[in-house]
Design a protein that fits this description.
6-phosphogluconate dehydrogenase C-terminal fold, binds NADP nicotinamide-adenine-dinucleotide phosphate, Rossmann fold, 13 helices, 52% helix, alpha/beta, 2 domains, 6-stranded parallel beta sheet
Length: 297
Amino acid sequence: MINKLAIIGIGLIGGSLARALRRAGHVQEIVGFGRNLNNLKLAVEMGVVDRAEVNLVAAIEDADMIVVAVPVGAMTEIFSQLAGRITRETIVTDVGSVKTSVVTMAREALGATEFSRFVPGHPIAGTEQSGVAASREDLFQNHQIILSPEPDTDPGAVETVRAMWEASGASVRMIDAQQHDIVLAASSHLPHVLAYALVDMLVRRDDHREIFDLAAGGFRDFTRIASSDPTMWRDICVANREPLLKLLQNFSDDLGEVMAAIEAGNGEWLMNTFERARHARETYVKPAPSDSPDSVE
Ligand code: NAP
């Protein structure tokens, strides 16, 4: 049970976590920190938070759990403001989509004792929408949460964060930060870059109106994630650039092979490739949990 939860960044993920914990009766008081007064006002009106603060120090006062839920590029600033203010009774966690760089930011900003109370985390759930208005109390239901504790992370803090996420309806997996970033670059970051690049390439053509006008369900499915928040995805690409660039290079090489096969009219090669891909998708890509929004993560 959390007595006072401070959520730094009361958007889609922070708001959904607040709502899920309230529904589960796992928290007594929730304070939300942000900069946008309209979003904060809405968070209070919707009952997502009990109180909204534009002052970070006031927001975290007496909190036993602080969840940092801002875009990855804003985390350094938040960790520097938290430094020196994390008491022995407080646990800090984050929800950032990249883990190695967030761990580095936290390690550099916080002292060793404070850092040991920081549990890096990432919910594998979300939508292409943002802001508290898009939050859902069931966003994490039947979804996975990755925790990436470091060797010097306090095991008690890890267990408290695990219990928080389990109360939200999620299941928790432990994955080392570097491995997390390699796997997520493939499953999430690469598809987002491809979706953004495809839509941007098409919109710059003179006949783009006709193209989008005639686009059907397949195009909508493939490009849905290009409606995601550009700030969040800019930050993820910059923070996870090494694994992402390796995958983009692989992808570009493989695309070259596809182009060569098409140019040569090599139907057999294309058939084998498409069959292999279809079989892999049917084998490995599970349907979304029922009643949950299509995930972007
Ligand atoms: P969001 O809906 O845009 O919410 C982010 C919140 O952070 C906003 O309420 C914003 O509030 C605050 N914020 C933004 N920049 C800030 C800054 N410079 N300083 C202080 N506060 C700032 O985004 P989200 O989708 O919840 O994403 C939040 C985090 O979750 C990101 O790190 C993202 O990588 C991670 N994540 C997202 C998803 C997803 O599918 N969306 C899934 C898993 C993890 P104000 O504008 O009021 O300051």
